[in-house]
Amino acid sequence: MCGDLVDHCGTGGLLRHGPQRQWWITAAWGPLRSGGLLRHGDHCGTGGLLRHGGHCGMGTTAALVDNCGMGTTAALVDYCGMGTTAALVDYYGMGTTAELVDNCGMGTTAALVDYCGMGTTAALVDYYGMGTTAAVVDYCGMGTTAAVVDYCGMGTTVALVDYYGMGTTAALVDYCGMGTTAALVDYCGMGTTAALVDYYGMGTTAAVVDYCGIGITAALVDYCDMGSTAALVDYYGIGNTAALMDYCGMGTTASLVDYCGMGTTAALVDYYSMGTTAAVVDYCSIGTTAALLDYCGMGTTAALVDYCGMETTAALVDYCGIGTTAALVDYCGMGTTADTGGLLRHGDHCGTGRLLRHGEHCGTGGLLRHGDHCGTGGLLLHGRHVGNRRCLFLSYY
Predict the structure, then answer these.
(1) Do the beta carbons of residue 334 and residue 290 sit within 8 Å?
(2) Least C-beta-crowded within 10 Å: which of 118, 148, 335, 382?
(3) Origin, by domain of life (predicted)?
């Protein structure tokens, strides 16, 4: 997505699943023009940062911890994915860093910053199990500058450029290490039907359509690149917008869009992945280390350790601030609906029992977006798996 598209391109100011706000901060690795590490959240100019759909009506941090199935506030803090003290302070409505540190049970600001994770592009690349920064960018799945603009609720490229603190499109291009805007678009992948065809290694659009189990090219286009309420309705297999609103527990399209902190319905569409309650249930029915490894696209514990750039399982567990491997499994969003109390890691339905975002549901009958490799090692691009039929579209698995 927009935030995913730039990992601050080598500056060390990582973004995770969310664009950045513009304020000056000082992290452990120096001053950056960044809103910090936003994981599974999106500002897009609304000023309302979401964490898995919002706070879900929790009155206290303790209540949220319990609701998330976390054992400690520290685990919750790391789970929230904030990469800078400033961003985390603002996110929790705290007045000072000291107040936040005390609330999170951390001893020092440095410990809090270190606890939250990444600091370099290399770390991001290793974190995703990608070989190169290019692979990470491709993984982000934006096909055109227009798509990025639309995703952020911006009216024009100029507005988007300004949003990132750049003076011109050229500056933005240069910022990402690209020579031209065309190069940037090509660097991210799609942009035309022909590119999509080539992406799947198919000879014709018809072949791609057949490969994805979709009946017509138009359906494929809508399914992969939503952009309208009608497409959203079709994506969830619901007959009309009213039914969709009821399904999500929302009153109007506008409230649904606002609920997600999105500027447009199109952005909202692209932000979600799950489509049925059954998918939600399946998503939470893990509960073992072996299942977690399979979920993460890893074959062994060693692979998981390597995926996180750690030397040993113990190091990985310590890195996550968790006490045991079992706790790590729970931390990664496994377990049961009862364990989570309704707030699902990597997907939140905040009492509606319906919606998930950034979920992985290989084999549940839904579309993968921001999911894992499903054991294939293939990159995801807007939920599309490279060279693998296991984790493609709704009608396939």
Answers:
(1) no
(2) 335
(3) Eukaryota
CA angle 142, 147, 153 (to 5 degrees): 125
For residue 123, the SS3 value is: helix
* % of residues, the chain, pLDDT over 70: 0
If one compares 14 and 109, the residue with the highest pLDDT of the two is 109
Name residue 314's amino acid: A
Judge contact between 13 and 21, C-beta under 8 A. Answer: no
69-82 pLDDT, tens per residue? 444 444 444 444 44
* Structure token digits, residue 331: 């931390």
Q: What is the pLDDT of residues 328-342, one digit of tens each?
A: 444 443 332 223 222
CA–CA separation, 114 vs 389, rounded Å? 39
Supply the pLDDT for residue 303: 53
Q: How far apart are CA 65 and CA 154, in angstroms?
A: 34
Name residue 30's beta-bridge partners: 27
What would the pLDDT profile of 344-393 be if each residue is shown by its tens digit? 222 322 222 222 222 222 222 222 222 222 222 222 222 332 222 222 22
Half-sphere CA count of 164, side-chain side, radius 13 A: 31
Provide the pLDDT for residue 118: 32
Structure-block tokens of residue 107: 């001893």
How far apart CA 35 and CA 13 sit, in angstroms, is 9
- The answer to which of 141-145, 201-205, 229-233, 280-284 has the lowest mean pLDDT is 280-284
How much of the chain is in helix, strand and coil states, percent to nearest 5? 45, 5, 50
* Dihedral (Cα; 304, 306, 311, 313), 10-degree rounding: 0
What angle (nearest 5°) sits at the alpha carbon of residue 28, between those of residues 321 and 128? 55
For residues 52 and 40, is the Cβ–Cβ distance under 8 A? yes
Instruction: Please report where in the chains the tokens 């377990």 appear, as a residue.
Output: 335
CB hemisphere CA count around 206 (13 angstroms): 0
Burial of 192 (0-12, 13-18, 19+ CB in 10 A): exposed
Identify whether the C-beta of residue 304 lies closer than 8 Å to the C-beta of residue 290.
Answer: no
- In 347-391 the beta strands, taken as DSSP E runs, fall at 380-381, 384-385
Q: Are 25 and 36 in contact (CB under 8 A)?
A: yes
Asked whether the predicted pLDDT for residue 205 surpasses 50, the reply is yes
